[in-house]
């Protein structure tokens, strides 16, 4: 991003300016980098500088881990009802400060304010859900084949958990990991993303206010580069960390898994996606267009479950393309804080460059630009790209194999159900898929054949706190949310008693 001379006073936009923090949070203390190093944070919609953030060295990550380890015994010893009470208080704080949290998110990430409000509500739902799940960590008694013997299985918190979160959902990816960890009785070290650290820090302010003890929640942050790599290595190699929960790219997931092998940590990874979105000939086209708008263009296309490959049956291809273009033309692009804006910037110039590369590659191979196709250069370091629809996209192009993470909707033709399922399943990742049909038999048949962890039928929305979220193949393993989400932060212990 351009090093703009402009600055923005984010605190002045907030009712509660104390939510705007420019320090890390370790052992209940707000701290700068131990050597005073900082890095600049910019607003992707304006290029204005928001803050100078601590650029922490590896030694402070170790300090945060030590604090979490020291706080773990007392936090784990609380009853599930006591931990539930903390989570419900934190949920209430999020509700009371939802507008300020949304403004912070909109400003650092770029997504429109209305969409940011939706993320805050979604993020809060994980606190509410896991507050209840804290009371459902049931064990079991298993009959023994040996006389006078009783087998009891109990669940216990796994220990210190490292939570590595992405920038595309700065609030919800914190709460989706932190809420089950705290409910289970674990303490956490959160490595906040360099692009969007302010939302994570605001949640620490609220955690402190509800009385969550020092050391239970810790936040470390640093810019991209050597210090971020060193932080990841410390979280992987430190024997005091029992669990790593990571959301991010598949290559980084592979690296973290390799680095964690020496300490055999429990891992849960939500990695890359390359979602297929299939529109069969009998689909309700208006419903399908609505699904694309929700899935493809939410967060300007920067979501892991974003529709990346849109397959449209030849019989409805032209009609669907026309309807989609008409809807996308209605988008208002701009600063998410401005009224009526529903498409904000990408989070960085690197993201803009990737979308640009995918468009140029597809066009060079014969694709046609129906709408958009260019970056928007305001000369201020902002990161906008036009919402784009491509038609006649060939099979052999970058967007068919790579996750775009931007507002690009490529339309591929298909004629045969078996063929489109095979094409959908060629991806090495398998996070989510979507399809639209009014045929009940096809609904069950296709849903079972798609090689993904989540399937949406006749809707573009998947994520909810009450359902498991995760993928298969190289999209990772483990689940977040739903009844099984809290199990990722617990261990089963067998207690066998003889002589009864």
TrEMBL record:
Keyword line: Oxidoreductase
GO molecular function ontology, one term from the record: succinate-semialdehyde dehydrogenase (NADP+) activity
Record field: catalytic activity: succinate semialdehyde + NAD(+) + H2O = succinate + NADH + 2 H(+); succinate semialdehyde + NADP(+) + H2O = succinate + NADPH + 2 H(+)
Any one GO BP annotation for this protein: gamma-aminobutyric acid catabolic process
Enzyme Commission code(s) on record: 1.2.1.16
Residues the record marks as active site: 270
Family matches, as Gene3D superfamilies: Aldehyde Dehydrogenase, Chain A, domain 1, Aldehyde Dehydrogenase, Chain A, domain 2
Ranges of residues in domain Aldehyde dehydrogenase: 30-493
CDD domains named among the record's database cross-references: ALDH_F5_SSADH_GabD
Pathway: Amino-acid degradation; 4-aminobutanoate degradation
UniProt GO cellular component terms: cytoplasm
Enzyme class: oxidoreductase
Membership in a protein family: Belongs to the aldehyde dehydrogenase family.
Name of protein: Succinate-semialdehyde dehydrogenase
Organism name: Kwoniella heveanensis BCC8398
